[in-house]
Amino acid sequence: MRRVSIFGATGSVGQNTIDLIARAPEDYQVVALTGASNIAQLARDARRLRAEIAVTAHDHLLDELNAALAGSGVEAAAGTAAVIEAAARPADWVMSAIVGAAGLAPGLAALEQGGTLALANKESLVCAGQLMLSTAKAQGARLLPVDSEHSAVFQALVGEDMEAVERLIITASGGAFRDWPVEDLENATLAEASSHPNWDMGQRITIDSASMFNKAMELIETREYFGVSPRQIEVLVHPESMIHAMVGFRDGALMAHVGPADMRHAIGYALHWPERRTLPVERLDLAQIGQLSFRAPCETRWPALRLAREVMETGGLAGAVFNAAKETALDAFIAEEISFNEMAIIVEEVLTQMSATPGHIDATMTLDNVAYVDHLARQEARAVIHRRAG
Ligand code: NAD
Ligand code: MG
């Protein structure tokens, strides 16, 4: 029996992970499941998977969680510290699927206990990639990609020599607005940005797909995982979302990873790695599909891609600033305080402001410094939002 924990168990990736684990309950002992507001879901899954502990990130929901777990034998806990403590419980395999920078500290705690961390939470690599990688190395822990593009690159690299790699191409569906006239983006509504043409995901990542902030974060994530230079990473718009990534080798060959838009593939690959086991995903009928298409990404439509390149150029804690400003701008868009296009304008302004102050972006990458810079960037982003509104 493998001991497994799922952080962000109530979310889209978390539920897909539970779907796979629940198909073979005899293979797994579930240690911890965590969630935030959806207590009913958290308690239901903790009961049926016989988890040791269920944790909500919200302190004030402890009583509700205790009541929902009464008589089940599952321990209940609440609060940010309790989530991190749960990550420190020994486990062989941990899924990191909390959304946002809140996933960083639990991910690091899981790496510190030395098991395998399956990483869906791309924000932790964007904010603190070098810290994640050095912690994994020091503890002999393994970091496996779960983001579909990075899982695809990882799979295309099996048995290959990184020396022979010329470029990594990650694809992007283009999100909800890929076919809209650029001038209409200004008036894009929250409802329009919250529906994805191909993938069924949480609301935040769906909006980030429409703005390309998701792909922007994935550019940085690619650099961190595979240690290539930013120049070697390309984004390719591919509306059908069937090729997830391609690896280009020095002999001109391109190895493409092709599969259905179903996160259970990448999750299952990380769950069973280094084996490849049968997974309950659709088998593609390419003759039926007929055609795949590709376009170059347009930086006027998607300024987030240019910002990600600038962040990689700057290095240091620029990724933490970028992510925090993006999360704050996204909150404001979701609250309908700012327009769709203002998200990128705000992120750029925060990056400019914070780069100008010594001791922020150039500080050493420790968890405390990342948290501090994250805090300042959110404050700055709110100030920018306030100024623009007034
Ligand atoms: P989601 O919004 O569906 O779920 C997020 C989970 O995080 C929930 O369990 C929620 O309770 C928990 N959570 C939210 N705020 C929290 C906090 N402050 N502290 C602790 N827990 C908190 O999100 P998702 O779509 O499942 O995405 C999860 C992560 O995986 C994100 O980093 C996302 O970028 C990444 N990812 C998702 C997909 C996808 O298909 N959904 C694909 C690739 C990568
Ligand atoms: Mg992805």
UniProtKB/TrEMBL annotation:
Pathway connected to this protein:
Isoprenoid biosynthesis; isopentenyl diphosphate biosynthesis via DXP pathway; isopentenyl diphosphate from 1-deoxy-D-xylulose 5-phosphate: step 1/6
Which UniProt keywords are listed? Isoprene biosynthesis, Magnesium, Manganese, Metal-binding, NADP, Oxidoreductase
Q: Which residues bind Mn(2+)?
A: 147, 149, 218
| Catalyzed chemical reaction(s) | 2-C-methyl-D-erythritol 4-phosphate + NADP(+) = 1-deoxy-D-xylulose 5-phosphate + NADPH + H(+)
Query: Is Manganese a UniProt keyword of this protein?
Result: yes
Alphabetical list of Pfam families matching this protein: DXP_redisom_C (PF08436), DXP_reductoisom (PF02670), DXPR_C (PF13288)
Which GO terms of the molecular function aspect are on file?
Answer: 1-deoxy-D-xylulose-5-phosphate reductoisomerase activity
Tagged with keyword RNA-binding = no
Relate the protein's function as given in its record.
Answer: Catalyzes the NADPH-dependent rearrangement and reduction of 1-deoxy-D-xylulose-5-phosphate (DXP) to 2-C-methyl-D-erythritol 4-phosphate (MEP).
Q: Which family does it belong to?
A: Belongs to the DXR family.
Protein name listed in UniProt? 1-deoxy-D-xylulose 5-phosphate reductoisomerase
The record lists the lineage as: Bacteria, Pseudomonadati, Pseudomonadota, Alphaproteobacteria, Rhodobacterales
